[in-house]
Amino acid sequence: MTGQLSFPRQHARTQRFTLGAPRAFSVSPDGARVAFLRSRHGTDLSHLLWVLDVAEGREYPAADPAVLLGGASEELSAEERARRERSREGAAGVVGYATDGVVELAAFALSGRLFVAELRAGTTRELALTGEPGPVIDPRPSPDGRYVAYAAGGALRVIGSTGDGDRALAEPDGPGVSYGLAEFIAAEEMDRSRGFWWSPASDALLVARVDDSPVQRWWIADPANPDREPEQVAYPAAGTPNAEVTLVHLTLDGTRTEVVWDRERFPYLARVHWSADGPPLLLVQSRDQRTQRYLTVDPATGETRTVHVDEDDENGAWLELFPGVPAWTPDGQLVRIADEAGARVLIVGDQRLTSDTLQVRAVLSVGERDVLFSAAAGAGAELPAVPGEIGVYRAWFRPAQGAPAGAAPLPRVPAGHEPLAVVEGPAVTSAARGGDVLVLPSLTLAEPGVRVRVVRVDEERAPADWERLAEIANHAERPVLTAAPHLVYSGERNIPCAVLLPTGYTAADGPLPVLLDPYGGPHGQRVLAAHNAYLTSQWFADQGFAVIVADGRGSPGRSPGWEKAVLHEFASVTLQDQVDALHGLADRFPLDLGKVAIRGWSFGGFLAGVAALRRPDVFHAAVVGAPVTDQRLYNTHYSERYLGLPDEQPDVYARNSLITDDGLSGAVEPARPMMIIHGLADDNVVVAHALRLSSALLAAGRPHEVLPLSGVTHMTPQEQVAENLLLLQVDFLRRSLGLPNPGPASAGGAEG
User: Fold this and answer.
1) Whole-structure pTM over 0.85, yes or no?
2) CATH number of 486-737, picked from 1.10.10.1450, 3.30.870.10, 3.30.70.260, 3.40.50.1820
C-alpha cells in the first residue's frame, strides 16, 4: 500500500512546489489575452504554453511539448543547459517564450528546434531551418510578427514567421565569438539573459557580439565517469579578463553598423532598451561598478550620447542594477531607479515619484502617465509591523515639457504613490499589464502557493474594488506540512527574522536546539511574507529544532545602506548579524544556546563556514553547501563589486575568504564539525572551493565530512539527491550536537 509522500520526497518531486504553478505572464495590449507557462500538474516537469481568454475566462493550451515532440524526450544542447543553469531553471518543456507586440504570435525552442504559436487560435507549427545552423537558442518574434530572430551555432539568424527566408545576419568571425547570446557574467550576475533586441519598426536589431577568447579556461570533470572528457568552460574569475562585449546594429537588408562607446571605461553592457518611445537606450557600467552611463544610440551612425550618469555614493559603494529599467515613458522621459539620500527611489525625467518609506525593487510596467513598480513598504527607519512584504505600487508622472497638450488625459493623481492591494494581510505580489488589464500573482503567509488574479483597472474606484475578471488556475501540489513562521525583528538593528518551532510545540517541551538557516547575503532575501518560503525550515523544525531565518545586512529589501554595509566586509558583517539575531531572540523563544548549528547553500554555505570557523563560541556545527570559500575563485562582476580587485586589495580578499594560500582564514579554537556538500558539475561555484576547504581543514586537524554530488550543478534538481540531502543533514546535525536519534527523519507521512 502506498502512503502519503514524505515532505523531502514531495519537496523534491514538485521542484519546491513550483510545478503546476502558472508563471511568465504576457498580457496583450488590448487586455484580451494572457499568455503564460504551466505544467499540467504538480509533479509534471514539462511546461506548456497556455492562453487565458479574458472575456470568456477560458484557458487553453497553445503549445504542448508532448504533442510537438511526438512523445520523444527533450534533448538539450550544451548552450541551452548553460542558459537554464544561469536562470536556475530545472523544469522542462516550454520554459521560456517571447511574443510579438500584440501578443498574438509566440516563439520558443524545444530540443533545439524552432516553433511558433498562434495564440488566438491555440495552434503551433515548427519552422524549417535552412541547412543545419545548430540548436536554436532564444527565438524572439519581431514586434510586427513577420519575422523571428534566433541564435544558433554562434550566429544571429532571422526567418520569416511563415517559415521563409531563413538566413544568418551575423556569423562568428573568430574563435570564441558568438552573436545574440548573453555572456556568462551578464546572465549569472547582471540579470541580462538576452543578447539581441528588435527595433520597434521590425526592420533591424541590436545584437551583442561576445568574444570570450580573452577569458581563462577551466575544466569541469566528472570523476564518477572517468571515460568522459572534462568540459571546458570560460570562467572570468576575479581579477582576470572578461569577455569582450560589443554591440552592432544589423538591418534585415544586411547593413551593419558598430555601436561605439568608451568600452575601456565602461566594459559592462548591463541593459539594452529599444521601444517606440525613444532611441535605443543602453546602460553601461565601469568595471568597479561605481559609475554607469545611460546612453542613446543613433542607429544610422552607431554613435552614442550620454543622457544621464550615476556615480557611487560618498562611501564608494557599487551601483545596483534593477529589473525593468532603464526605459522610456511614451513622451520620452527616462525611467530609472536610483539611490538618493539613503532611499531607493523611482525617478521619471527629473521627477522623484516615491518617498523614503518605500524601497523600490523593480519597474513592472510604464503606462501613458503612470509606472507600476514593486517595492518593500516601510523601508529604512519606518519598519512595517511584519517584515517580508513586497507589494505592487503605482505612481504618476507629469508630462514632459513640450509634450502635446491633451495628448492623453491625466488620471486622477493622488499624493505620492498608491499600493495595488488585492489581498488582505502580508503578501509578496507582482504584476503584468496590458491595456487596462492587470495580472496580479500573489503569495501570502496564510496559504501555500501562488494565487493569480486578473483584474480590470477602474480609475473611479479604489484598487480593492476593481473588477475581478478571472483567476488563473494553480495546479501545484499542496504541501504535506504547514509552515508557521513567527516574523519578527531582532537585536538593536532590527534584523528581519522568521522563527519556526516544531509543529505542536508547547512550553512544557523545554528549550530546543537551534538551527540557523540563512542565505544572509546579496540578492537573497529569505524573510518573506510567503508560506512556501519556509517549508524546508519548518521541516527541520519538525525534526526537533528551533529554526531561525535571519536577513542581516547585505540582504535586499531594507535600504541601500543596509545592503551596502558589506562593502569589503562580507564575512564580519554578515556573521555578526546572524549572532545578533540569535541572541536577540533568546529571551522570546525557547532556544538552547548550548546547541546551535547553522546550514546554508551558496552564500549561505560560505556564511555557515565562517560561523563555524570564526565563532565556535556561538556555533557548534555547520552544514556548508556549495560555498564560495575563496572569492578569488569567483567571478569578476560579483567579487569585484563588493571586494575590489584581488591584486589591489589582497587583504580584503583574505579576510573575506574561508581559506588563503597558507590555510584557513580567521579560524579559532575549538574546532567545530562541518559537513561540506558540493556538486561536482557546478560551473558557477566550482568544486575547487569545497576541495580546498577540505584540504585546509585536514591540514589543521579539524573534523569535517565531505559529500560530493556526482553530476550535480549549483542546483540540485534530481529528486533522490534533493531528498536525501535533507535527511543526511539532519543526521549530521543530530550527531554533531549530541542529540538522540529518534529514527529516520520524517514529516508529513512516509512513502510506503
Assistant:
1) yes
2) 3.40.50.1820
